[in-house]
Write a structure and sequence with these properties.
single chain; 173 residues; mainly beta; Endonuclease - Pi-scei, Chain A, domain 1; seven-stranded antiparallel sheet; four-stranded antiparallel sheet; 13 strands; 0% helix
Length: 173
């Protein structure tokens, strides 16, 4: 699984393996203070390995695979909601997308489940229960057709994360 470093670089846990570098940090959306969430760089302490059902999803023009049990931030009418991926099935919803380091404005892209897999293997950084992982999904094109220098990101996390069901959009950027 991909994650965003504090240097605004996309890294993939598949290339890190069990080797954890001492000075590697990854970005999270921290809800330890639910009324004022913040994007924080957390030290990479270890990698969680999973072998479970997965959802192949499309967000705008980007494809990725996430654990089917996970939740994602979606946005409608100025409110951002934390919903299970399973709720996306057959519904037109927009993912909340933002690069927390250099993005100055969120974007919203239709998110849908394309396929599901009974069993898939993946890994991700170990993060706290009141945090969401910032996951880079790709580089968007600008108005002039060039690609942005920084990746567009979504925020997702495991079930049981201590994240409010909904948050005012203005509190997230």
């Amino acid at each position: 699984m991909k994650f965003l470093t504090e240097e605004n670089v996309t890294l993939d846990t598949d290339f890190i393996g069990n080797r954890v570098e001492k000075q590697l940090y990854f970005m999270t959306l921290d809800f330890s203070r639910p009324k004022s969430p913040d994007y924080l760089a957390k030290k990479l302490e270890g990698i969680n390995e999973y072998n479970d059902a997965a959802a192949e999803i499309t967000i705008g023009e980007f494809d990725l695979i996430l654990p089917l049990k996970w939740h994602i931030l979606i946005s409608e009418a100025g409110v951002v909601e934390y919903i299970p991926l399973k709720r996306l099935s057959g519904k037109g919803m927009n993912a909340f997308c933002l690069n927390p380091i250099t993005g100055y404005m969120p974007s919203f892209h239709e998110v849908r489940i394309v396929d599901s897999h009974r069993t898939a293997s993946w890994s991700c950084p170990i993060f706290e229960k009141d945090n969401l992982l910032v996951i880079p999904i790709g580089h968007e094109k600008t108005v002039d057709g060039k690609y942005r220098d920084y990746p567009t990101c979504i925020m997702a996390g495991e079930p049981g994360c201590r994240v409010p069901d909904s948050v005012e959009l203005s509190n997230l950027w």
